[in-house]
């Protein structure tokens, strides 16, 4: 019996392509791709050397040679697609954000547990080497009690009103694509908060949240000690990703740079 895990890719967008490339680079076997368009599925399959290309999601789920499905559809479709895959007996890796609300997330997780299958969110930053090191440093106690975590993630994105990121019905806005990173970082270091407050201005044209700030309060401190902030801008300028961590002993600041910066 082979221990090889056979992957099926659901959807053919940019992120699906990047993930498929990484899977193959790591030696994983991608056996099928499914799309609502047979033409797009064929094109994706040809690009990555995938044997089976399906013109419907249902055909992908029915493929007995697939062990796990990577769900890369728009955010509002994640749980529905993951549920269909789980019902077909497939494990699922769902692109972040896993769902658009807590009820949807619980639905997907509950079904996976009842079915004895794995359902994971593709939160890749959790497994980066520097995140492992940060956890080690914080948990060692060498920094003392953490008093403040401030994370800023801003990125220039498309101005096209028809783009997925600008379409509210497709989960557009800053939260699901950018906000998941700083919120996850604070949650990962500090655990679940006891209170969350939200500040969000809107885009004039379509009422998407262009920027959001979520102060998270913890039981050890009556004031918010975590302030994840995230935004997208359609104006010229560099993206920025900033981390400020303050403890009882001191503070550290991080502004990661790309090689070209």
What does this entry look like structurally?
The protein is an alpha/beta fold and 261 residues long. The chain has two domains: 6-122, NAD(P)-binding Rossmann-like Domain (Rossmann fold), CATH 3.40.50.720; 126-254, Dihydrodipicolinate Reductase, domain 2 (2-Layer Sandwich). Helix content is 31%, strand content 27%. It contains seven helices and 13 strands. The protein has helices spanning 14-25, 38-48, 57-62, 78-87, 102-115, 129-140, 175-190; strands at residues 6-10, 29-34, 52-54, 68-71, 91-95, 119-122, 146-156, 195-196, 211-213, 216-218, 221-233, 240-247, 251-254. Strands 7, 8, 9, 10, 11, 12 and 13 form a seven-stranded mixed β-sheet that branches. It has a six-stranded parallel β-sheet with strand order 3-2-1-4-5-6, with helices on both faces. Helix 4 runs parallel beside helix 5 (102-115). The radius of gyration is 20 Å and the shape is globular.
Outline the fold blueprint.
Elements: E1 6-10, H1 14-25, E2 29-34, H2 38-48, E3 52-54, H3 57-62, E4 68-71, H4 78-87, E5 91-95, H5 102-115, E6 119-122, H6 129-140, E7 146-156, H7 175-190, E8 195-196, E9 211-213, E10 216-218, E11 221-233, E12 240-247, E13 251-254
Parallel strand pairs: 1-2, 1-4, 2-3, 4-5, 5-6, 7-11
Antiparallel strand pairs: 7-12, 8-10, 9-11, 10-11, 12-13
Helix pairs in contact: 4-5
